[in-house]
TrEMBL record:
Residue stretches making up the HTH luxR-type domain: 146-216
PROSITE patterns associated with the record: HTH_LUXR_2 (PS50043), RESPONSE_REGULATORY (PS50110)
InterPro entries assigned to the protein according to its UniProt record, in alphabetical order: CheY-like_superfamily, NreC/VraR/RcsB-like_REC, Sig_transdc_resp-reg_receiver, Tscrpt_reg_LuxR_C, WalR-like
Keyword Isomerase annotated: no
Organism per entry: Cryptosporangium japonicum
Protein name per UniProt: Response regulator transcription factor
Length: 218
């Protein structure tokens, strides 16, 4: 298995070194581990990684420097996989990042998710492979806040949409919900129809379904 060239940006030294160590054990070649957004941009320009993992809040202001760097990288390198890590659920941050480029190869995860190494590594691989992964806690909070058009969905359709947003395939969703793949496909189709996503966008409709409820605000 080829190593995945990775640039890691995290201002906390202990977390940065810990993440680099974990990634190195699971097939990720951490070619640079930096502590601020400027260094992140420089490292990507020099080293041409396949994956960037960055904290949302970075020096000097500890506001959204990491996010803005991630958005810049998405604009400069549309094929680059980018994952933002955040301490808290930031709805606007998640929306901005997921709407960047083509909505693929992107993820928004809470730092608590790193504790479950298996899930974290699996999410990173799905993103590198072209998927879009939103942290389950972010999904749940946003679904609770949505009124329209998500209010049109049934409870089962919401469950399916939540798992789609986490980057799971129909087969995986079927196993988790104890449904047939055909049933999951029907639920996904209902979700796309109720969210008024046009057939012409079929190749990217699953991503658009996620973005639809992210854009909707109370």
């Amino acid at each position: 298995m080829d190593l995945i060239r990775t640039v890691l940006a995290e201002d906390g030294v202990l977390l940065r070194e810990g993440l680099a160590g974990v990634l190195g054990r699971f097939g990720f070649d951490v070619v640079a581990a930096v502590g601020d957004a400027d260094a992140l941009l420089d490292a990507v320009a020099r080293l041409e990684p396949q994956l960037v993992i960055t904290d949302v809040r970075m020096p000097p202001g500890f506001l959204d420097e990491g996010l803005r760097a991630a958005l810049t990288l998405r604009e400069r390198h549309p094929g680059l996989a980018v994952v933002a890590l955040s301490q808290f659920v930031q709805h606007a941050y998640a929306t901005d990042l997921l709407e960047s480029a083509d909505g693929r190869r992107v993820g928004y995860l809470l730092k608590d998710r790193v504790v479950d190494v298996g899930d974290f590594i699996a999410a990173l691989r799905r993103i590198v492979d072209g998927g879009t992964v939103v942290d389950p806690d972010v999904v749940r909070q946003l679904l609770r806040r949505r009124k329209d058009p998500v209010a049109r969905l049934s409870d089962r359709e919401r469950q399916v949409l939540e798992l789609v947003a986490e980057g799971h395939s129909n087969a995986t969703i079927a196993r988790r919900l104890f449904l047939s793949e055909a049933a999951v496909g029907k639920h996904v189709g209902n979700v796309l129809t109720k969210l008024d996503l046009p057939p012409a966008t079929d190749g990217n409709r699953r991503v658009l379904a996620v973005l639809t409820w992210l854009r909707s605000r109370d």
